[in-house]
Amino acid sequence: MSEERRKRQLERDGSASDRNMKKLVTYGVVVILLAAAFIAGRYYKNHKYDNFAKCLATKQAKMYGLYWCPHCIEQKEMFGDAFHYVPYQECATKGSSEEAPVCKMAGVKLFPAWQFGDEPPKEGVLSLEALSDKTGCSLP
Questions:
Q1: Cα dist. 64→33, 118, 121, 130, 135 in Å?
Q2: Of 74, 116, 108, which is closest to residue 90 (Cα–Cα)?
Q3: What is the mean pLDDT of the chain?
């Protein structure tokens, strides 16, 4: 093989290697951007209602529920991870069929129930829109 031909072959091999490296870097950047978008979307979904739940607390809204109640679970799931900001009173006494005394005193009979200030509890699953209307807290 002539010297000139060998140089051209090396140049082609080098440029092919450069193209492969550029493709690899491009694919890597795309994967990183997609992962970042997924994580950001997941964070937003899980924390979307944080401010709304905090506002409910400032408006003296309180939820009464039972850990085993499917409707209470449904109500909690509406808030996602933000539920821990919602003032919540567990009314089930584990290991007993007795209701917690604080729930009896509030007059709660059906679950979930929401109490707004000094008003009597409103029983049943409430939509986030209904909670917003009742308290004046704005939804995201």
A1: 42, 14, 9, 16, 17
A2: 108
A3: 86
